[in-house]
Amino acid sequence: MFIKNTWYVACALTELEALGDKPLGRTICNEQMAIFKGPDGKVAAVEDFCPHRGAPLSLGKVCKGHLQCGYHGLEMGVDGKTVQMPGQRVRGFPAIKAFAVVERYGFVWVWPGDQAKADVAQMPVFEFFDNPAWAYGGGLYHVQADYRLMIDNLMDLTHETYVHANSIGQPEIDETPCETKVEGDQVILQRHMEGIQAPPFWQMAMSANGLDPQAKVDRWQICRFTPPSHIMIDVGVALAGKGGFDAAPEHKAYSVVVDFITPETETSHWYHWGMARQFKPHDTDLTDKIRAGQGGIFNEDMEMLQLQQVNINKWPDRKLLMLNIDSGGVQSRRIIDRLLAEEHTPEVTA
Amino acid sequence: MFIKNTWYVACALTELEALGDKPLGRTICNEQMAIFKGPDGKVAAVEDFCPHRGAPLSLGKVCKGHLQCGYHGLEMGVDGKTVQMPGQRVRGFPAIKAFAVVERYGFVWVWPGDQAKADVAQMPVFEFFDNPAWAYGGGLYHVQADYRLMIDNLMDLTHETYVHANSIGQPEIDETPCETKVEGDQVILQRHMEGIQAPPFWQMAMSANGLDPQAKVDRWQICRFTPPSHIMIDVGVALAGKGGFDAAPEHKAYSVVVDFITPETETSHWYHWGMARQFKPHDTDLTDKIRAGQGGIFNEDMEMLQLQQVNINKWPDRKLLMLNIDSGGVQSRRIIDRLLAEEHTPEVTA
Amino acid sequence: MFIKNTWYVACALTELEALGDKPLGRTICNEQMAIFKGPDGKVAAVEDFCPHRGAPLSLGKVCKGHLQCGYHGLEMGVDGKTVQMPGQRVRGFPAIKAFAVVERYGFVWVWPGDQAKADVAQMPVFEFFDNPAWAYGGGLYHVQADYRLMIDNLMDLTHETYVHANSIGQPEIDETPCETKVEGDQVILQRHMEGIQAPPFWQMAMSANGLDPQAKVDRWQICRFTPPSHIMIDVGVALAGKGGFDAAPEHKAYSVVVDFITPETETSHWYHWGMARQFKPHDTDLTDKIRAGQGGIFNEDMEMLQLQQVNINKWPDRKLLMLNIDSGGVQSRRIIDRLLAEEHTPEVTA
């Protein structure tokens, strides 16, 4: 069960554009979709099922904004209604589901649930996208694990010490207590480490930002979960004693780890990850270097999460521990559970 | 459920012969068979299960017409009875099923159902095999889809416009209405297109047959379904106005697409495809060229059918449309359903 | 269902040591284990499930004899109790199962069942390991088949004639009756062939041992099954008329085929195979040559057993024959069934 009356990242716009006149087939919250650009150039998403003979529409191609089935040429419109088909009157053809779509921040966002409730006003807002003072680079992983395991992973960064020992991990993460608070539907978990040596990834960022990579630093991690499954993590280092997170820009290297976690099925998800940074935003080589580094680091989590899922499948009744370090994931899951319950509560009208 | 009291193509004789002294293991209508040449050189088929310890007999080899199990040397006869086994008295060994076999037209045909009803007189008759005025070339595909999806495919050639756009497809197929009729157990669907440009495949055939490939032509497609799942399609082009299908041989390029569709399981089948042609029957280079072309074209259907099957599996309750263009498949399925019902009706004896 | 209150080979010590500071994950009788060297250098085995978040402990590493989870650093002790975890009090953490382990004969042995009953005195005893008069070489195969199919295979060597026709098989095996006897929990099946030509593998061994490979020989096979699933096979050839199995060492080439068959799941097992020999024990090149030969021969059984398993899965209700040649397997299975029943009989206390 997923929260479905909400916006999820379906794909990056670049993914869709790389396909030319082909649509993109993707499953979001168990809904199979064919995503394509309609007659006005706007992205649309419809069920990936041709009403004629059940062929996947995603095998077809886009002709003047209609999605032409690759089997017998039925042309599907952005609203899920058949536009035309050679030699046929199509008015009586059954419609397929069309999904509300928003293009924003370089991504295609879809609303997989009740279309009557799709509400653009509920789109999350991010200051760093489409902002010339910031740069963004990222990628996509397809992960064979419950999307909530990825939330757990990102809302407890003590795993960095073990999973990412050679890049961003360091013992001080384990040694420094974290603080978790819930504000409405948001969970915020933070950890501030003072007067430490920067780990390799941050030494690289310090050098890129003109700072001495060997200098002692204050390091912070502020994880922010918002439903359904977006996690933004303020991460950075400032020269020790300059104010940490609040230090002046010239004393720090600072960025936001961006995680859009989109459920595919109960045991798989699409993980759109990236990093937004405020320093050297025009240095595209640096963007590429960070993307490569981050991609490598995040790839280290894949095996762990996927085999954790295998283990949980084998021992479904075994209770897991919920320690203080797990509070970020625990609180996030509580919010998900509450919203799920609300979504499935019958509405009462006066 | 399959019509089982009937003849299916199990394999091409060349497939079996290519294996030397090894048998061929194949599943037909859920019946696992080991096919081999018996003591008289005639092809036989028995269950692929050694009565000794359950090893697949198809892993063994043929010794003087007996199928010797590759595990402990039990020798199976063409009648499903054990002939001998080192150091054993085999008379009490349980027999395995033996399937009636006919070798004809270059194929091995089997009767997977009630062996008491196997009747050579029910073998279909084809004029173009073993006929020096004709040439034949073909191949085999293993398709992960219900065999009836292949029947639908072949009994509605409007898909050529989309799936085979670069070879035999052309818009005129969509634009020209087809006519479907049922004659006993046979379904005939035909389409005649007049005064059109030949598509690439037929231009090649026209050149091969000494005709100007750029000339306007009359083109025909006459699909004939006969149970359980054989489809012969008269296809060809004649110079425009020369009589179409009935034109004199020197004005046309004409052939028969041969489709023997053999169910393997509920969601997979063996597709023996080929082309029989009346022109230049002794030109073996042309046979090879046509086979390569046809193989490439038919391969374009594989992905579509297999993913259509995946989609149907996911939405098993969703009704598909039955348009006029689908009438060939619809009528063919009706005949299959009627014969299936007949096969499962208890016989009444006076 | 497996006999679980007994010792199985979990792995070769060399397998574990090749992993350095990494543990070895392995499933034995459906029990998933992480195997590692504890603080005293002794091998330990615990459930492969971190009590914190369910990650496989086998993805972690060994730190000073504790198994550190690769996700968040929990350190597991050899007794299944958490030793420590950064920033946590671990006393209340749920314990996981720890398995009794014995290191002997170059292997790690585990007791997958009731740990209260684990009894080192029940370890099998082999004279040829750790004995300078003998040499041993072997390997490991992972087989997708019920472990009892491997017992059947090894307790009926008539299959050698068919499966291993080019190495150790010869028609005389089939032609010579075997004798089976049961002594307590042991099944002994023997076959003595006199005045025959040695097959290729034994010709090689004769040459290695300074005997004329073309000389007529007496050949023996004495298979000894002991529960749960160990099979030792005395195999060899002696110059004809010199006493066969009892001939003086200079007239024979003689060894013991060692088979430790460890169930993984109901339809898969770990097959530790090897050969112990009394001739030229210090010739490591010969050890390698025999290992390569034996590995190749035993690999010929893999396809047969795995496809036999597939066939048995398809026809689960079909009875298999139990011929005289099968008596070794039949008697071995009877002992397994009896011990299984005993293991599942409630104990009565006075």
TrEMBL record, chains A, B, C:
InterPro entries xref list: Cholesterol_7-desaturase, Rieske_2Fe-2S, Rieske_2Fe-2S_sf, VanA_C_cat
Transmembrane segments: none
Boundaries of every Rieske domain copy: 7-110
SUPFAM superfamilies: Bet v1-like, ISP domain
EC code(s) of this entry: 1.14.13.-
Enzyme class: oxidoreductase
Signal sequence range: none
A GO MF term: dioxygenase activity
Record keyword Chaperone present: no
Alphabetic keyword roster: 2Fe-2S, Dioxygenase, Iron, Iron-sulfur, Metal-binding, Oxidoreductase
Protein name: Aromatic ring-hydroxylating dioxygenase subunit alpha
Lineage: Bacteria, Pseudomonadati, Pseudomonadota, Betaproteobacteria, Burkholderiales
